[in-house]
Description:
By secondary structure, this protein is mainly alpha-helical. The chain has helices spanning 2-7, 10-26, 35-50, 57-69; strands spanning 73-74, 88-89. It starts with a helix and ends with a strand.
Amino acid sequence: MLFGAHHAPRPRRARLAAEVRGLMRDMADVLPITPAVAEHYGRLKAELAAQGTPIPDNDIWAAAIALQAGLIMVSDDAHFDDVPGLAVENWLL
């Protein structure tokens, strides 16, 4: 998220970075990468490669954590739609 803030048009960078820092400060917990998450990651990476729809590794980790924790992925990235079993919501629509 900080990358996105720092990559935004100059007039918005400082405000967006401050908002992201506020979100990070307010987060109660960060979900860990556990052996079960790693299993999801390995399976997902293999499935996505087999169906010809690979996505970035960091996004596979995020999807694996969401799947393991039973969470909904909130993202504008359409490639999450290719992840089997992942519930996705786009709040920008």
